[in-house]
């Protein structure tokens, strides 16, 4: 048994290998997708030049979806799965049996915190840096605009078939792949390094938000990442944060579809509703109540032999 334990790699080695896999698969898979796109038609050039794919043929839109899906698959899913295959003694993707109530509570946290999340998002969107950092702020705005342009091309659809595809490419794929990567592999590695689960959750959440390169939505995404982290720790089941992640992304896809059918713009979709102070306080208190209930139930499951193990 001791010989077996000695063969386990250090967390730093695991982290290095995860990053190597990330770089290799991300570049390799997307280059393959780009090459196939160039060989079949001019969709690759059209997409990379930033043309409005909403007015293009089905081939261009298909290529756009293929590139997004392959990016998610290569950057997040494959590195996580390959690392787990190499280190089968590490529980990267726990699937402890739990009560279905946890899935309901996970979605309840997202719904309860929604007004507060909008308030934080609005503040973050209006964030400005000191004059000495205007160059950095301009770069951040450029990155934000580029990301928004891509999102706009994808989500603003008025055909039910395209909504279905969006739910797959923008909700199901990222929910599984990103949770495998961040809450599965990365959080597990960081916990072996920091040996403090709260530091682990928040560091992972910061990286999760930063990797999207959308700085004026950084804080809401970071908080979401922290929610997902605690959901995993409290249930020891990777499918709880996966479901919450899916619901969050699916809501955006459905709202974008609804706005498009009404003739509204992507900019209108990004506007935030203002509520009274009582709604924000109620949102915060409701989230706390659901989170406490979530935590207490997880403790009960641990005592019954079902929880974190």
What this model shows, in words?
With 309 residues, the protein is mainly α. The protein is built from 12 helices and no strands. Helix 8 packs across helix 9. The longest helix is centred in the middle third of the chain and has 35 residues. The chain starts with a helix and ends in a 6-residue tail after the last helix. The N terminus and C terminus are likely disordered.
β-strand percent reads under 5%
- The domain tally reads 2
Q: Low-confidence parts lasting 5 or more residues at pLDDT below 50?
A: 1-6, 53-57, 305-309
Count of extended strands = 0
Secondary-structure element order, as H and E?
HHHHHHHHHHHH
Q: Round the Cα radius of gyration to an integer and report it.
A: 21 Å
> Termini distance?
20 Å
Mean pLDDT: 86
Largest sheet at a glance? Answer: none
What would you call the quaternary organization? single chain
| Count of DSSP-assigned helices | 12
Shape: globular
Q: How much helicity do the residues have?
A: over 70%
Structural class: mainly alpha
